[in-house]
Amino acid sequence: GPTIILGVTPGVHEELAEIVKPVYEAKGYILKIVVFSDYITPNLALAEGEIDVNSYQHYPFLEQFCIDRKVNLVKIGNSFIFPMGVYSRKVKNLSSLRKGASVAIPNDPSNGGRALVLLESAGLIKLRPGAGWKATVFDVASNPLGIKIVELEAAQLPRALDDVDIACINTNYAMSAGFVPGRDAIVREEADSPWVNILAARAGREKDKALLDLVEAYHSDKVRRHAADKYAGSLFPGF
Questions:
Q1: Domain of 39?
Q2: Based on the structure, what is the number of domains in the chain?
Q3: What are phi and psi of 126, to 5 degrees?
Q4: For residue range 6-28, what is the model confidence (pLDDT) as tens digits?
Q5: How many C-alpha atoms does 67 have within 13 Å on its Cβ side?
Q6: 165 & 118 share domain
Q7: Smallest Cα–Cα separation from 195: which of 118, 104, 142?
Q8: Which among 232, 86, 106 has a CA at the least distance from the CA of 166?
Q9: What share of the chain has pLDDT > 90, as a percent?
Q10: Start-end of H helices in 85-179
């Protein structure tokens, strides 16, 4: 069968791909996994045809990327939800945050908006009505504690915990830094998060059997069981 090249980011996405590989190859394909160390290159490589599919991002990120870079990439299926969480090395809960505390959030638009929505659901800020996941720091309508919002590259956030009071960190980076999201996050998203991770391909390949079979492999019992055993509470099936 054909060889399919799958782009992922290090950590959880790469591990899931390794579990998916034998399930997918049992269907007669060969799966080649390419690991990218940032959030931009996997989509550029996909748009340029260097890879067939990627699995590392949620839909809002893909949508924003396609607008910004004028490329035509599409979602071909859901994988797992990796709940973003609030982490700290300085406080055990949000009620002990002092006035003027600092919070670090990701500096890319979709994850930044996601962090602001999380801070709102935690009761720290209120956003302008209708801001939704596209919220920016300019949409903060009320900030009773006067918290200082610092925007940093998503991958740098775990390291920033020495300097800020709290940080909103994506699951993959939290886990790479040794956190267990189900245990260590002060607050985190629920299982019905709109930020479910997806598999993306170039437009025109939505019906490509090889790619749909890959989505099916991601949804298999073996992969679901592995995710539940290894990452209890750190990710939820989004399908």
A1: 3-82+193-237
A2: 2
A3: -125, 140
A4: 999 998 899 999 999 999 999 99
A5: 8
A6: yes
A7: 118
A8: 86
A9: 82
A10: 109-121, 157-160, 171-176
